[in-house]
From TrEMBL:
Belongs to the DHHC palmitoyltransferase family. It comes from the Eukaryota. It comes from Glossina pallidipes (Tsetse fly). GO terms for cellular component: membrane. The DHHC domain is required for palmitoyltransferase activity. This is Palmitoyltransferase. PANTHER family: PALMITOYLTRANSFERASE ZDHHC16. The keyword Membrane applies. It catalyses: L-cysteinyl-[protein] + hexadecanoyl-CoA = S-hexadecanoyl-L-cysteinyl-[protein] + CoA. GO terms for molecular function: protein-cysteine S-palmitoyltransferase activity. Pfam families: DHHC (PF01529).
Length: 280
């Protein structure tokens, strides 16, 4: 089964090594996300921290902001380029069913849209054009589905974007207070009107993304703890034995360690998906 998945070139790039959804809307949202992160980088570094007369404050906040921005960007890339749990297309053939070891007369379910054997808790995504295991939703901002294999990276993306947004709000407020205190003398390399416009744009962006990502983060964590994806909550589906909250967390992040917060590690606890099937 995994061999057939590897041979399927659909939604694959870099010689099949990376997952890549070819959706124009999603690509535009990804580019916009990167541009907004770069704008925040420019204002925080060029307008706020580099001109700061307090070197210790400036150095500490540069280190914090750059670390959070790097982790947010890495989480975004990992979410976007990770297979979310796609079921091989067209595997609902008699030969494949026999190869998988299903007995004659055993009930299995087939997705009519991608001709796949449909695993339990899988849903078809019209954008990815695949059935996705434990699909939560399709997110255009990462140009990918959030599913069994990449939910950890999506949660980290929302967490780190929320963190740099709150940090940026703090930096804007302290910068404005410093500028007013010094009557805008040596406040930034730009004129006071330009500085005000850049800071206002940044605080508006930071407030918008802080609210959005905090809500999304809370929604994702609630879904994980309840062992129920966003689609399952909407459809009010609960036809499986729910795991405990600890097991649910471990199924996404693995056993507790600092690796929970790293977008470069994969959780080790993955369940088999070819044992039970159901229809939507």
């Amino acid at each position: 089964m995994y061999a057939s998945m590897a041979l399927d070139p659909h939604n694959r790039c870099c010689g099949g090594r990376a997952w890549c959804v070819k959706d124009i809307c999603g690509v535009c949202c990804v580019l916009l996300t990167w541009l907004l992160i770069l704008f925040a980088e420019f204002v925080v570094m060029r307008v706020i921290l580099w001109p700061s007369p307090h070197p210790l404050f400036s150095t500490a906040n540069i280190a914090i902001f750059q670390m959070l921005a790097f982790l947010a960007f890495a989480s975004h890339i990992r979410t976007m380029l990770s297979d979310p749990g796609a079921v091989p297309r067209g595997n609902a053939t008699k030969e494949m069913i026999e190869q998988m070891g299903y007995r004659e007369g055993q009930m299995i379910f087939k997705c009519p849209k991608c001709c796949s054997i449909k695993p339990e808790r899988a849903h078809h995504c019209s954008v990815c054009q695949r059935c996705i295991r434990k699909m939560d939703h399709h997110c255009p901002w990462v140009n990918n589905c959030v599913g069994e294999n990449n939910q950890k990276y999506f949660v980290l993306f929302t967490f780190y974007i929320a963190s740099i947004s709150v940090h940026a709000i703090f930096l804007v407020i302290t910068s404005l207070a410093e500028c007013v205190k010094n009557e805008w003398r040596q406040c930034s390399p730009y004129t006071p009107p330009t500085t005000i416009i850049l800071l206002l744009f940044l605080i508006f962006e930071a407030l918008l993304f802080a609210v959005f990502t905090i809500i999304m983060l809370a929604t994702q964590l609630t879904a994980i703890l309840n062992d129920q994806t966003g689609i399952e909550q909407l459809k009010k589906e609960a036809r499986w034995a729910k795991k405990s909250r600890l097991k649910s967390i471990q199924s996404v992040f693995g056993r507790f360690s600092l690796a929970w917060f790293s977008p470069f590690t994969k959780p080790s606890n993955k369940s088999r998906f070819n044992t039970h099937f159901y229809s939507v």
